[in-house]
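Chapter summary example.
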Amino acid sequence: MRAALWLLVLFAIAVAGALFAGNNQGSVTLFWPPYRIDLSLNLVLLLLLGAFLVVHTAMGALSALFDLPRQALRWRTQQKERAMHAALLDTLSHLLAGRYIRARKAAEAVLDQEASLTSSGHRPGNASQLRAIAHILAAEAAQALQDRGAREDHLQRALEQASARDAQETRDGALLRAARWALEDRDPEAAMLLLKGLPVGAGRRTVALRTRLRASRQAGQPLEALETARLLAKHHAFSPVAARSIVRGLAIDLLNGAYDVAQLQRAWGALEPSEQLMPEVGIHAAQRLMSLRGDARIAREWLLPAWEAQAELGESLRVKLVCALEDGLDSVDGGWLARIEAAQKANPRDATLQYLAGMACMKRQLWGKAQQLLTQAALGLQDRKLHRNAWRALAELAEQREDAPGAALAWKRAAEE
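The structure predicted for these 417 residues follows.
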């Protein structure tokens, strides 16, 4: 459509020119004594138009001629910039391919090209950020080559170049990479110090939290690691199953760090309610408390959520639950005896519950019922420790009845485990 309109305009101009020139009788007379020159008006107009075109063309040619040095300089600058960006791409490619010596050389080539551009007075607009990235890549290659001196030198230069406001993200990236390098060197304290240099917003990013989690675990700070894992779980950095497993492991590590009853209770209080309800955590806390000669009543309170969910527990975890309860049977109250009896009656063929109920009856000096339950349990228990303890208890009951052959047989069966 545009071409058709232009064609119509050209036809209109041609028609107007033909009408004007065809009927134009005007003339132009030039007096140059002693001469007189008569020219038609049409010829004069054509000569003026031609002169304008010649002058315009000449001025354009002269402008292009005088602009050649500037264009040549710009072309050379563009070639240097292209070479610099090509070297930056080569650095990334070599790093991904594991060719670290070539990657470091390519990063140094980027820095040389940028320095050459700056010295020629053509500094790129993002020169600081470009230099910082090149230094970070060179430091990454040096880290892979175990050249810690070069790594620290490039890191410091990167941080200096990234100090500007428009390069804040690059500085955050440099600190995060440096923290990761510190973890690879098994220096969690340095990693934590680097992470503290991040702004508040950057410190709550998923990659920063993951790094802090690794650093706190390496440094043996389970409480710090647990708090970080909670934040990561809230940010959905892990799947629900993985998040639960990580939090559970860190909670157990926190409990393992307690070396007296007071420390253990403080560690238990530092756990969130959802973590205290985890059967693995409650059972481990109770076992830890009993090993520290703590209050068995408190241990049973910690075990109550696991006991109520015992039907959903695996066999190994149920065995741990029974062992934890067995350690406090000397002071067990009527409420827990009722719970144990009700559970055993609800599952009369469960050897683990038969064992626990039998041991409870033995502590209450209900010898006949204890012997009956332990005999049934000894025939069905799969756990070697519980099986051995059941036969030992039967041996003690036989000795109380002065049944020497029965006691000898029970001690023999216990010794076989």
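To summarize the output: The chain has 21 helices and two strands.
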